[in-house]
Amino acid sequence: MINSISELFRAAETLEASGNAAGAAELYKRWTALNPEDPHLAAALFNMAVVAQRSGDGFGAIHALRQAIRLNPDFHPPYINLGRLLEDNGQAGLAVSQWLDLSNRLPQLTGAALRHKLMALQQVGRVLEFNHVDAAAEDALRQAIDLDPRQPQAVQHWIALRQKQCKWPVIAGWDGAGSRDLLASISPLSAAVMFDDPVFQLARAAGYARQSIARPGSFPFDHAPRRAERPPLLRIGYVSSDLREHAVGFGLSEVMELHDRSRFEIHAYYCGIDREDGTKSRIRAAVDGWTDISRLTDDAAAAAIARDGIDILVDLNGYTRDARTAVFARRPAPVQVNWYGFPGSMGTPYHHYLIADPHVVPEGHEIYFSERVMRLACYQPNDRKRLVAPEAPRRADEGLPETGFVFCCLNGTQKITAQLFNAWMAILARAEGSVLWLLEPAAETAARLRQVAAAAGIAPERICFAPRRPNPQHLARYRLADLFLDTFPYGAHTTASDAMWMGTPVLTLEGRGFAARVCAGLVRSAGLPELVCQTLDEYVSRAAAIASAPGAAAALRRRLEQNRPTAALFDTPRLVSGLEALFDRMWEEFRSGDLPVPRLTNLACYEEIGLDLLAGREGDSISPGLYQPELARWNAADPLPADGRLWPPEPQANAAGVVAFTRAA
Predict the structure, then answer these.
(1) Where do the CATH 3.40.50.2000 domains begin and end in the chain?
(2) H-helix or E-strand containing 507?
């Protein structure tokens, strides 16, 4: 006999902890039916909904939450959970309405009311962003930041939204939220779009990990006993939310099929959206084990990976949407690797290796990575079986004029910076009759870009937009473009490979950071090194020259098509063979006790200095030498430890009293 609400909660918790979630749900159902006048009925219904949701009864949870709100409209938690359940069932509009209703009910912003309002506004921003209602999403997030600027996640989403909408300057502070304070919460991905500064990118990645990835309470996995000779089948686990119709899924499909099953056992751990598609099915069929961890807690997901006996766990997300970085923090595998999904260092103590190539991370650049760098001939995988629509696309169907040179950039608009767009306008001014073909953004963003073009003296209709298409049709329309203009500092990755697979040459600008070097490496690996520029002026001049020289673009297209069968960029068997050789080396280093220990000392200092140097300087490239005098001043005020620095000191740095800045490669 249960006599009080507290007894009910304890009994249900005991049942659920023992694995009897159905019994806990039934207990709540009986109690709520027999106690309709209990003053705590709304709380019981809320807990009942939580149990129902965890046991897979989402619709039962929705009914219980709605009943709880009807009973007590001022009980706030049900609004949050109900909105998320409605979103999960395809009712994004109703979800937003629930959260806005809660936000409007909370005029007195103290204690729990403030927390719930902030949570509601963040959920509104997240869902509106996912549904491409960008301006309204930005407004909701700004309201949340106004209420409390110390919300890294809200600030990260707000910055990303402004980048996506091409609102320049992106980080425009206001009273109570200064530019430097906002920059201090930028995500590593957005930082790579905004600055070509590998020092700050490493430091910000480490800061983001400290800020956003909770330290596990325990580390239950002991890998020391596994230091033995290589097992007959080395078990490789790939973790990603993007093993589906996504750039990562497209690139990895053939890799999964080509792994040597006589020496490797391949497992995939999926943590993405609950939707089936052909790429997801193809990858699932190619691997030896497929586990959906999207609904598992971090502890449960790590335990599942450990039970599978994974030897090497590969992070294919990095700091991107739906990543499960906290699973890696629990160290479920003895060797953990950062590859392909994120263009830079993770800056964590639990990613041991980064897989790159000689172009992306040349000799001497290892100092910008906390992981030990290992290299393939070309680090990016490509699917030679990718589907291309057979029908020939027409210019009119893609919003293009019937004549004129077509410059294209089908990267996401978040990669376009003010400096780069100005360079594009200079190219159009020098290439008479040409157009710039961009991936279609939201209507407001398209109008904004055309306004910027008009202000630069370029007719707005010369900015054309490519409608969203399924990937086979998207690939086919690259045939309409004469020259792909890369973005900077975050260049094209899969989009560049797609363009060159279809014969469209890519002009790129090479920088210093990982994201600013990927495309240059791909272009070189495709056999067109003359299309890699070192300065923005060179980039503008080269583009205009190709457009004005009769037959120049066609000659580049012919070379691409001739090179395709032998180019390193598209040699997937070679990549897989090289990848497997790296896995063997990693295991041997683990077996021999030489597993890398990421060096993270003093990165917080570099991050603080980088924030001072970069605030208000969007698009700038900060020389590593600019850090030296700042470090000298820091050292004079508060001497820093002598280890863990990013590069050897210059003589003048030593003369200023700065200790040796050495860092093991």
Answers:
(1) 396-570
(2) strand 506-509
Using alpha carbons, select from 176, 180, 169, 140 the residue that is nearest to residue 157: 140
Cα gap 254→268, rounded to integer Å: 14
427-472 residue pLDDT tens: 999 999 999 999 999 999 999 999 999 999 999 999 999 999 999 9
Distance CA 315, CA 241 (A): 10
DSSP reduced 3-state for 511: coil
SS3 for 116?
helix
Residue by residue, DSSP assigns 26-76 as: HHHHHHHHH-TT-TTHHHHHHHHHHHHHHTT-HHHHHHHHHHHHHH-TT--
**Which CATH code fits 396-570?**
3.40.50.2000
Annotate 209-226 with three-state secondary structure.
HHHHCCCCCCCCCCCHHH
32 phi, psi to nearest 5 deg: -65, -30
Nearest alpha carbon to residue 336 among 310, 358, 357, 360: 310
Q: DSSP H helical segments within 186-277, as ranges?
A: 188-194, 198-212, 247-258
pLDDT in tens, 481-520: 999 999 999 999 999 999 999 999 999 999 999 999 999 9
d(C-alpha 618, C-alpha 397), whole Å: 36
Dump strand ranges (E) for 285-391: 289-292, 312-315, 335-338, 353-356, 372-375
Token pair belonging to 2: 């249960």
Read off the amino acid at residue 19: G
Q: Where exactly does CATH 1.25.40.10 map onto the chain? A: 5-202
Quote the pTM value: 0.83
d(CA 643, CA 599): 9
Describe the crossing of helices 58-71 and 41-54 by its angle, rounded to 10 degrees. 170
Query: Which three-class secondary structure state does DSSP give residue 372?
Result: strand
- CATH fold, domain 224-377+572-591, is Rossmann fold (3.40.50)
Closest alpha carbon to 42 in 62, 19, 65, 60: 65
Please name the residue that has the structure tokens 């497209």: 250
CA–CA separation, 538 and 545 (whole Å) = 10
Q: Note the residue count of the chain.
A: 665
The CATH T-level fold of domain 5-202 is: 1.25.40
Asked whether 162 and 414 are in contact (CB, 8 A), the reply is: no
| Other beta carbons less than 10 A from residue 495's beta carbon | 25
Q: Buried (b) or exposed (e) across 199-238, using 16+ Cβ within 10 A?
A: bbbbbbbbbbbeebbeebeeeeeeeeebeeeeeebbbbbb
